Amino acid sequence: MATSGSIGFIVKEVPDAFRERSRIRKWLHRVAQDHGTRIDAINLVLMTDEGLLYYNQTFLGHNDYTDVITFPVESNNGVAGDILMSYERIKENATTFQITAAQELRRVMVHGLLHLLGHSDKSKAQRESMRALEEKYMARFPRS
Questions:
Q1: The pLDDT value given to residue 4
Q2: Is residue 109 a contact partner of residue 129, using CB atoms and an 8 Å limit?
Q3: Which domain holds residue 35?
Q4: Is 22:28 a contact under the CB 8 Å cutoff?
Q5: Residues of the chain with pLDDT under 50
Q6: How far apart are CA 112 and CA 107, in angstroms?
Q7: 3-state SS of the chain?
Q8: In a domain, 67, yes or no
Q9: What is the pLDDT of residues 57-87, one digit of tens each?
Q10: Residue 55 belongs to some domain of the structure
């Protein structure tokens, strides 16, 4: 397997909720390897609801809040793209699912990476498959 590419962490107008960055990087690289590829370059961008709503309206034509939007970028060296995430949605989802915000942030990050790896969640069956993959990889997050 080729050497691992870069994973950037960008925080826009919200608290920096990225903890354990080296473990996150290691984990996401393993998810890509499990799919027979590597990460070339991805950016994990944490922003406000309003910031993400702008991208949802402008680029996807959707007028609703969401927790994550993924924008793939062409690459010949593995998977590449931007994973845009709403800090407010992550915190709200964590409360709803009765988990920590850190756990929900990891779920949203891996969900975005799964999209970059070619998984879809448009149909009910695809959503169920995606959820199963999220659970599989959440269980593989390195403990230390």
A1: 64
A2: no
A3: 6-139
A4: no
A5: 1-3
A6: 9
A7: CCCCCEEEEEECCCCCCCCCHHHHHHHHHHHHHHCCCCEEEEEEEEECHHHHHHHHHHHHCCCCCCCEEEEECCCCCCEEEEEEEEHHHHHHHHHHHCCCHHHHHHHHHHHHHHHHCCCCCCCHHHHHHHHHHHHHHHHCCCCC
A8: yes
A9: 999 999 999 999 999 999 999 999 999 999 9
A10: yes
What is the Cα–Cα distance from 24 to 142, expressed in whole angstroms?
8
| Alpha-carbon span 134 to 112, nearest angstrom | 10
Tally the domains of the chain: 1
44 is written with which tokens? 């994990």
Tell me the sheet residues that pair with 69.
Answer: 84
User: Is there a domain that residue 1 lies in?
Assistant: no
* Identity of the residue numbered 16: D
CATH number at residue 44: 3.40.390.30
